[in-house]
UniProtKB/TrEMBL annotation, chains A, B:
The lineage of its organism: Bacteria, Bacillati, Bacillota, Bacilli, Bacillales. It comes from the Bacteria. This is GntR family transcriptional regulator. Residues 1-69 form the HTH gntR-type domain. It comes from Exiguobacterium aestuarii. Keywords: DNA-binding, Transcription, Transcription regulation. The keyword Cytoplasm does not apply. Coiled coil: none annotated. Pfam families: GntR, UTRA.
Length: 236, 236
DNA sequence: AAGTATAATTGTACCGGTACAATTAAACAA
DNA sequence: TTGTTTAATTGTACCGGTACAATTATACTT
């Protein structure tokens, strides 16, 4: 692991262990340089990472402070979107409804930047947090990139498998949000009624080289899905 | 304006003018160093900024490439959330329903980190994109930070006013998303029916020094609100 | 052709430095 | 006490450098 990532983790752990709260001040940059025995720019990179994660904020001339959202019941939108990070102490489980190889339809192929004759894995799951229905997910993986999947892998975190076993790294993603009403079949999966409100998110996940490898459609249970997004900006 | 911001803008403009599309390659780092006559780290900072904005992605050993989402009809979630950036060529207007000074209730005071005896500005608006109803917004500004508002300021971009006229800078924000059903009065503002689905977003905006200065509740028209979020990560 | 080793290209990690602007604390004056 | 100037603190911008890993192109086999 890179130095600045390692340091970022240690600082995050420090905040957790010391139970620091919103506005609490961290050691100053120079002290961190000495403590971790690295140059200023390495500490700066570590802190910048934590800033992007919404853990801290830095104030020139003043110091480095803890930032915290912490509304109970709200999950980070990204934590449920493959980017594991921390779902806190909540337990995430899945019912696997389907894992199969197939040819994509035009829409799926388009979103994945492949041909309709290329193979994809289709995965369908219902996901739960602490036993409560969170969402219904239908996702497609480019088989040329993810050559093998089974129900066991899919029941756990697909992204962990893809990264560790296949050695590919996920780069970035585009998420498309929409609000609408449930269809009858969706309602059944979620234990709700037809026409109940829902949040739909389509996501295209790309590898670091820019190639899409996963296109997924998620339909959320409106009552069990409350999300937090921490934004830094405006960037200029 | 800082060098790296300026360069980021110029590169963004270059991409637009040259009409570069997804996957197109940009000049290599060293050429940019020469072209803008700055050091490597300054170019790197500019590119990192563009990466965070979802404009480009960088691939070690290969080059710098254009990233593009571009689903028609989808707005960046952050562009409607004060962070102006680009709403593309779509026109954003407002009906101002209320601008008044008042004492906050407990919930508002808590979210703003102030006392119920402190003054706040209450602003209520209905917002439109290209003439179509986008959302109903109710927001509260800490009067100690934003000492004056009127209907004219509020009809335009409040954030532009706050930053330029008051000289304070917005640092970061926490957004809380929820899906639910419209109340009768909300439905009326949005031209919808009671119990129609809706996306609700509460946002707390902080200054760079970490102090909250704006707490807002937005209720979106489900049919006219489709959002895109571009994520980079996992960060480690 | 088709695979394989080799070399060139290219961005990232990390160092260590100077200058500076924003904040805060200290000293001072009214 | 209260405001004002001054000094110390502290993070950020920017420079210019070395080393390196991932990618891509080239040359070399088979």
């Amino acid at each position: 692991m890179l130095k600045y990532q390692q340091i970022a983790n240690e600082i995050e752990q420090y905040i957790r262990e010391q139970n620091l709260k919103q506005g609490d001040k961290l050691p100053v940059l120079e002290q961190m340089m000495n403590q971790y025995a690295v140059s200023k720019s390495t500490i700066t990179k570590a802190l910048e990472l934590l800033e992007r994660k919404g853990i801290i904020f830095q104030l020139r001339g003043s110091g480095i402070f803890v930032r915290r959202h912490n509304r109970p019941g709200y999950m980070s939108l990204f934590s449920t979107q493959g980017f594991k990070s921390n779902l806190g102490n909540r337990i995430l489980t899945s019912d696997v409804l389907d894992v199969s190889v197939m040819k994509p339809d035009v829409l799926v192929a388009e979103n994945l930047g492949i041909d309709v004759t290329d193979d994809v894995y289709r995965v369908e799951r219902v996901r739960y947090v602490d036993g409560e229905v969170l969402c219904h997910e239908e996702s497609y993986y480019v088989k040329a990139i993810v050559p093998y999947l089974n129900r066991e892998i899919v029941a756990d975190s697909i992204f962990d498998y893809v990264q560790s076993a296949l050695g590919v790294t996920i780069g970035f993603s585009d998420m498309y949000l929409q609000v609408g009403r449930l269809t009858e079949s969706e309602a059944e999966y979620l234990g709700l009624h037809e026409d109940d409100p829902t949040l739909r998110i389509e996501t295209i996940f790309h590898l670091t080289n820019g190639k899409p490898f996963d296109y997924s459609r998620i339909t959320y249970h409106y009552a069990h899905s409350q999300f937090v997004i921490q934004a830094n900006g405006p960037y200029m």
